[in-house]
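Run log, item B.
One chain of 300 residues. Sequence copied directly from the ordering sheet:
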Amino acid sequence: MPFIQVKDVVKQYDGHKALDCVSMDVPQGCIYGLLGPNGAGKSSLIRIINMISEPDSGEVLLDGQKMTTNDITKIGYLPEERGLYKKMKVCEEIVYLARLKGMSKRDAYEEMDKWLARFDLTEWRNRKVETLSKGMQQKVQFIATVIHRPQLLIFDEPFSGFDPVNAEQLKQEILALRDQGATILFSTHNMESVESVCERITLINHAKVVLEGKVTEIKQSHKKHLYNVAVEGDRPIDANDELFAINSTRGASAQIRLKEGTSVHDTIAWLNTNYTLTAFNEILPSMNEIFIETVKKLNA
């Protein structure tokens, strides 16, 4: 059974339909990408799953049961618009938010010290939040989100504002949380991060689900039969009207597109007959390309 089940959720605001019969199944222990252009309905769905607002119809199940206010302690939510109390000390802020999620004061301090050390923030524990850099504040908010070890983590643009080094550290922490059993809902516009951390995705456009499934299967289903080919020597690769067209060449390398119905086996056989083949690699579309192509087709 999926850990999160969104069933036929509808949400309207002043006559505008933000979600139109949206359904989604999120497996336990999975990093699940929630994608879509601005205004697609992602934020509305996140607010409903996080019990900030209620659907007009439909329901959300957590571990097979309809969600109640008691489930709030099982959720950690990192919103896109970060919100910390700037006048509070770092340690006070984290412990205060941990206590709201049901942790004892002692446990909150113990866990906080571990996380501060992990993010090299120990020396800042008694500083006011407003004295920290933006990146440090982002780390503090991340710690406050995960400190109570929630079963469900909702990250909305988690890498926003981080430099590449800190973004990589945060990515590794998210993967570790997944490995420890957390289910993670991951909303972002950064398609590179989708490919590096998400196992499955749902793409919403104009309030409806338009694409969903495993990232690897989606990439396979959108492939264009493109291949990078390289041969020995300086002789350029010639096109073959029956097997493939050449999109581009560079010396003895080329990008080719197989003709409809052409097999990879036949193409490799022909190349090996006429050249000494040194590389033949399939080019799969990126999630960014799939995202743009899908949304453009629907908006055309």
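Observations after the first pass:
- The CA atoms of residues 85 and 93 lie 7 Å apart.
- The chain has two domains: 4-219, 224-283.
Flagged for discussion on Thursday.
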